[in-house]
């Protein structure tokens, strides 16, 4: 029974007490307010904003910067969450089912969410933002597969921005100028960032430009910016569990190459990489790298651009270079 039906039933009573009068008054006020809101919405031509869902925090940050307030946006993963091992919850299914478009990384970065997204009943348009980038490959159990960590190269970030911009225009064409303007600002900063990172890396002595991290998430970064990926504790996915022999082998590689420091990552427990550092007799860099997620609000890596800046400063400082400052326009 809705509010108008309740009001009619109350009016049919032959007697009215104070409680009934108060209740009737409240109902009529509510009906009046909601009626005015509906009428106002109809007169101004207001429509519901497109519902947009993003999986990874990196993609969510790009969507937020391009769309601003023009869409109803929801990010699934929280800062610091690992997309490789994330297990969807019921609210994720609801978000997918209500979405007009879903932006996800692709290349199997977020397997649990991709499986849920492709389930029956989810009609949203699905955009694999990362798959707009031509991938680098990695070997997994003797087979080649695309490396999903495309955002490590800021130029790839520009490709992702353009993909998001174009899809937002399709679902909200009246906001085309806003999306294009915001994307242009973001791309200009990413272009400057790309040049800045290259310059920062050159301050590291040539024989120290070697990177050792917890998992294999920096292939695009090292290839773009002149570093050598000397070794990782685990492979492309954080689901892998390194053996004692793997730890020993990595320690030996570090000793041979005389790497000055190795790096933990913000989304992975640092215990094992600390063990590698101890066995190799090398320091663990004081600042972990942002690999699969941006940082929590207020941290130095709480946006896509800031995470690349923070990573670069951490790498440069730990490997003997001179870190500088990057400012966005």
Task: Give a quick precis of the structure.
This protein is of the alpha/beta class. The chain has helices at residues 3-11, 18-44, 57-67, 90-98, 111-117, 154-171, 176-201, 219-225, 244-257, 271-280, 304-318; strands spanning 51-54, 72-75, 101-104, 125-128, 137-140, 143-146, 210-215, 228-234, 261-262, 283-284.
Describe this entry's structure for a reader.
There is one protein chain. This protein is an alpha/beta fold and 329 residues long. Helices cover 47% and strands 12% of the residues. The chain has helices at 3-11, 18-44, 57-67, 90-98, 111-117, 154-171, 176-201, 219-225, 244-257, 271-280, 304-318; strands spanning 51-54, 72-75, 101-104, 125-128, 137-140, 143-146, 210-215, 228-234, 261-262, 283-284. The strands form 4 sheets. A 4-stranded parallel beta sheet has the order 2-1-3-4, with helices on both faces. Strand 5 and strand 6 (143-146) form a beta hairpin. Helix 3 packs across helix 6 (154-171) and helix 7 (176-201) packs parallel to helix 11 (304-318). The longest helix is centred in the N-terminal third of the chain and has 27 residues, at 18-44.
Count of extended strands: 10
Enumerate the spans where pLDDT stays under 50 for 5 or more consecutive residues.
Answer: 1-8, 20-24, 26-44
Average pLDDT score? 87
CA gyration radius, whole angstroms: 26 Å
Given helix and strand content, the structural type is alpha/beta
Number of helices: 11
Give the N-terminus to C-terminus distance in angstroms.
Answer: 56 Å
- Approximately how much beta-strand content do the residues carry? 5-15%
Q: Helical proportion?
A: 40-55%
Q: What's the overall geometry? A: globular
Tell me the series of helices and strands, N- to C-terminal: HHEHEHEHEEEHHEHEHEHEH
The main β sheet shows up as: 4 strands, parallel
């Amino acid at each position: 029974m809705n509010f108008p039906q309740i009001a009619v039933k109350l009016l049919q009573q032959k007697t009215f007490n104070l409680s009934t009068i108060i209740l009737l008054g409240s109902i009529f006020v509510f009906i009046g307010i909601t009626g005015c809101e509906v009428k106002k919405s109809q007169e101004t031509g207001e429509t519901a904003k497109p519902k947009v869902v993003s999986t990874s925090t990196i993609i969510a940050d790009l969507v937020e910067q391009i769309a601003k307030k023009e869409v109803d946006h929801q990010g699934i993963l929280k800062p610091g969450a690992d997309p490789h091992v994330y297990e969807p919850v019921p609210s994720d299914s609801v978000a997918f089912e209500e979405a007009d478009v879903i932006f996800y990384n692709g290349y199997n970065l977020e397997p649990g969410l991709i499986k849920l997204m492709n389930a029956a009943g989810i009609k949203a348009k699905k955009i694999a933002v990362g798959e707009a980038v031509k991938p680098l490959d990695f070997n997994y159990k003797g087979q080649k597969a695309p490396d999903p960590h495309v955002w490590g190269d800021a130029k790839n970030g520009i490709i992702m921005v353009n993909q998001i911009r174009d899809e937002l225009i399709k679902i909200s064409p009246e906001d085309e100028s806003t999306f294009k303007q915001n994307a242009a600002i973001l791309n200009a900063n990413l272009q400057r960032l790309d040049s800045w990172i290259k310059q920062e890396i050159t301050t590291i002595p040539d024989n120290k430009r070697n990177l050792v991290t917890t998992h294999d998430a920096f292939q695009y970064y090292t290839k773009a910016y002149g570093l050598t990926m000397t070794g990782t504790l685990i492979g492309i996915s954080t689901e892998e569990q390194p053996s004692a022999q793997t730890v020993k082998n990595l320690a030996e590689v570090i000793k041979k190459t005389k790497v000055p420091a190795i790096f933990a990552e913000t989304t992975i427990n640092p215990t094992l990489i600390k063990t590698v550092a101890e066995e190799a007799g090398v320091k663990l860099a004081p600042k972990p790298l942002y690999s699969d997620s941006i940082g929590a609000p207020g941290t130095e890596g709480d946006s896509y651009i800031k995470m690349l800046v923070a990573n670069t400063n951490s790498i440069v400082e730990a490997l003997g270079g001179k870190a500088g400052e990057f400012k966005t326009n």
